[in-house]
Write a structure and sequence with these properties.
The protein has 3 domains: 7-119, Orthogonal Bundle (Butyryl-Coa Dehydrogenase, subunit A, domain 1); 123-225, Butyryl-CoA Dehydrogenase, subunit A, domain 2, CATH 2.40.110.10; 231-385, Butyryl-CoA Dehydrogenase, subunit A, domain 3. By secondary structure, the chain is α+β, with helices and mostly antiparallel strands. The protein is 52% helix and 15% strand. Bound molecules: flavin-adenine dinucleotide.
């Protein structure tokens, strides 16, 4: 059993972190305040090969593995969780899904401009009345000749307002319930009405989130992703990979919380000594370290298994492990950020201290990609299934 990252993974982590520190750290606070990421960033990330991490080179990607995807998002989140979230929705939820489920024509048409950062990708599943109950979606796709007409509302969609392509789930045969769901590739500029509204958030500000309204929006039948009425298998496979990659996104914030806390505990003097000398502060630091280390090991295991599960391996095992890795990452990262806020005392409330931004960002790690409650339900269900 080897617990060390490969040289390639270590180099990737270093280069992503160096880039983020140099190019993004100086503007991270501004991104949060203005709720806007600079336009240049996507093509830059495309040039660096971080927009289509798990897509093979023939379609413009980098041909790396799920562990590389986790590492990439982890290092981005240490500096700017908002940028990392948009990159997650793009490279994993959209590109990886398209790559795994798309036919040759779809891969050739959509992946190169997505992997280069020319277009930003999204995935639209959630609706105002269907979040945890994902198969309860009400968006309708009505067949008319060789097209489908999409009608309904998607909400909370990361990159939604600016996406050049998105994977979207709709009901093609509503009376069949989960067996009547189909995945589509949707892009702006087709016939019919499609409007996007930017939503204001408390955290991950800068990552655009939108409500998307479709009224008889016309999508050609060749844009069905996977097979007609087989959308649930695209959805469930995608959610497993989303949870694995989301573990990296979430852990990066807990790691940053620990780094900031160690620095502050060494520098802040009270009662004539650095606060790091007080045992109640040391306890928090130790808890953060244990949480981060254990969640990271689970992420490594889940990411490694995702690689083989993706090739038709252990279906329910990755389902359980991916949910467990993200559940733990969400819990320990949120706890680490809460500890960091406590360690920084009153200064943590000042907007120019990055810990308050982390606090607003990290909570999403327990909500997106299935809430903590849903992750526990998945884990228990898979174990009981035996
Ligand atoms: C910033 C942000 C970005 C997002 N990006 C995307 C995106 O790109 N694409 C996308 O499709 N979606 C996205 N989402 C949506 C996200 O996946 C959902 O918010 C999430 O799945 C929860 O759904 P909900 O908000 O409707 O909560 P609900 O499902 O209404 O849940 C409310 C509460 O009830 C609990 N609950 C629900 N069912 C059960 C149960 N059976 N047992 C116990 N407790 C239960 C939940 O755990 C939660 O605590 C995003 C959300 C946010 C906030």
């Amino acid at each position: 059993m080897d617990f060390e990252l490969s040289e390639a993974h270590k180099m990737l982590a270093e280069s992503v972190y160096d880039f983020m520190l140099r190019e993004i750290d100086p503007i991270a606070e501004q991104v949060d305040r203005e709720d806007r990421l600079p336009d240049w960033v996507w093509k830059k990330l495309g040039q660096l090969g971080w927009m289509g991490v798990t897509v093979t080179e023939e379609y413009g990607g980098s041909g790396m593995d799920y562990l590389a995807q986790c590492i990439c998002l982890e290092q981005m989140s240490r500096i700017c969780p908002a940028l990392s979230l948009s990159c997650h929705a793009h490279s994993n939820l959209c590109c990886d899904n398209l790559y795994r489920n798309g036919n040759e024509q779809q891969r050739r048409r959509y992946l190169p401009p997505l992997c280069s950062g020319e277009k930003l990708g999204a995935l639209a599943l959630t609706e105002p009345n269907a979040g945890s109950d994902a198969v309860g979606i009400q968006m309708r796709a009505r067949r008319e000749g060789r097209h489908y007409l999409l009608s309904g509302i998607k909400t909370f969609i990361t990159n939604g307002p600016v996406a050049g392509a998105m994977v979207l789930y709709a009901k093609t045969e509503p009376e069949k319930g989960a067996k009547g769901i189909t995945a589509f590739i949707v892009e702006p500029g087709l016939e019919g009405t499609f409007t996007a509204r930017h939503l204001e958030k408390m955290g991950v500000r800068g990552s655009p989130t939108g409500e998307l309204i479709f009224d008889e929006y016309r999508v050609p039948e060749e844009n069905i992703l996977g097979a007609l009425n087989q959308g649930v298998s695209v959805m469930m496979g995608g959610l497993d990979m989303e949870r694995v990659a989301g573990t990296g996104w979430t852990l990066g914030m807990g790691e940053r919380a620990l780094e900031l806390s160690l620095k502050y505990a060494r520098e802040r003097v009270q009662f004539g000594q650095p606060i790091g000398q007080f045992q109640l502060i040391q306890e928090k630091l130790a808890d953060m370290y244990i949480g981060m280390e254990s969640a990271k090991l689970l992420m490594y295991r889940a990411a490694t298994m995702a690689q083989t599960a993706d090739r038709g391996g252990k279906g329910s095992e990755i389902n359980k492990l991916a949910a467990a890795a993200l559940l733990l990452a969400g819990q320990v990262s949120t706890q680490a950020v809460l500890h960091a806020v406590q360690i920084h005392g009153g200064y943590s409330y000042m907007l120019d201290y990055p810990v308050n931004r982390l606090l607003r960002d990290v909570k999403l790690g327990e909500i997106g990609a299935g809430t903590s409650e849903m992750r526990k339900i998945i884990i228990a269900r898979e174990m009981l299934r035996g």
